[in-house]
User: Fold this.
Amino acid sequence: GMFEKGDYDERPAHTVHITRPFHIGVCEVTNAQYEMFEHKHKKLRGKDDGLSKEDDEAVLNVSWFDASRFCQWLSEKEGLPYRLPTEAEWEYACRAGMETNFHTGKTLPVEYLKNPGRGGEPEYVSLQVGKTPPNPWGIHDMHGNVEEWCYDWYGPYTGEAQSDPTGYIDGDFKVTRGGSHGTYAYYLRSANRMGTI
Assistant:
């Protein structure tokens, strides 16, 4: 069906080995968590169509650089090495051992589709984290809710197998993954990737 083909930037399919263990947050970073680092962000709550006003909703309006600085701040605060996941780590965590388009199989159940393809008038939906069922590894909101920044610069795949890839040396766009609350299911697939300024 339509899901099988994938997009041009998902090819060529290639083998990636993750050789080092890593941790990943089971939920997206919330407004309350992010604002412990950057309290001025509170003024940006609800700026996008009234979305993400509450403490426990996924944080919006955060640049890649601010997301990286948040990780640095958290590392210093807790004495642990926090960073954004690489694109390969993100996809590995999203798939949770599955080779299908979604961790739920070939299709994505309706509860993950908060407001798909919201044409025309903006419509408010809750971006509260952890409200959709977790994947088999206990991680929430990898399909939808909000776009998630990855560490890597965005660029075309090459065909060869790789170990622990970190993407390109530089570029114009960083990789985002996972789609959002208003995204069609096709773009919420585990393999789907975007380049974002």
